[in-house]
Design brief:
This protein has 195 residues and is an alpha+beta fold. Helix content is 35%, strand content 24%. It has helices spanning 5-18, 50-55, 72-82, 116-126, 147-154, 163-180, and strands at residues 23-31, 36-43, 86-92, 96-104, 131-138, 141-146.
């Protein structure tokens, strides 16, 4: 079972790469005022047939040949619905797939967000040939980053595979999210006992 939402993002985005997507967008929207957390992964990959789409939330449906079950989408759907949210998936053959999970932000059953900076770093580094776009909103404020922007600055897409660039991406995302949430990252080394 996937324990946090960043693991779901990774699982779904990896499905996008397996579907030969060249463009993948990952959106996270944390809206405490509306009591909603929304996660969207959208790609321009092969898409799904209507028959497969009708069965995709069944744990015994998978395209993988290494196992007989596919638990990612069924668990994500179940998690969203258990905490007062919703799940939707749209897909068309040759046009891509869009998966959206909405959670009640304040629900005690909502999985934690997890390590989104490390997840995005992993996707960017693992598949630099894909045009990744990451958008994260916190109560209306937004941070975004794309491999297109990074490739333009780096002048070599393959540099996205290097540890130095990967760690810089992870740290940039972590600092930007802390800023969106209004936290002072200079105090992150302190734990509650020190305050």
């Amino acid at each position: 079972m996937l324990e946090d939402l960043s693991q779901h993002v990774l699982d779904i985005a990896e499905n996008s790469t397996a579907a030969d997507a060249s463009d993948v967008t990952v959106e996270i929207d944390e809206d405490e005022r509306a009591d909603r957390l929304t996660m969207i992964v959208e790609d321009n990959g092969r898409g799904m047939s209507p028959d497969f789409l009708s069965r995709v939330a069944d744990p015994f449906t998978t395209t993988r040949t290494t196992r007989r079950v596919g638990m990612g989408i069924p668990f994500l759907k179940q998690s969203a619905e258990l905490c007062g949210g919703a799940f939707s998936i749209r897909s068309a053959q040759g046009a891509g797939t869009r998966i959206e999970a909405v959670f009640a932000f304040s629900s005690i059953d909502r999985p934690p967000l997890g390590d989104i900076p490390a997840t995005i770093m992993t996707l960017f580094m693992g598949h630099p040939e894909i045009n990744w776009k990451y958008v994260h909103r916190v109560n209306g404020s937004e941070f975004s980053l794309s491999t297109e922007e990074l490739a333009e600055v780096l002048e070599d897409r393959e540099l996205l595979r290097t540890a130095e660039v990967g760690l810089w991406i992870r740290d940039l995302i972590a600092e930007s999210l802390a800023e969106l949430r209004g936290r002072d990252t200079t105090l992150d080394f302190l734990d509650d006992k020190d305050l």
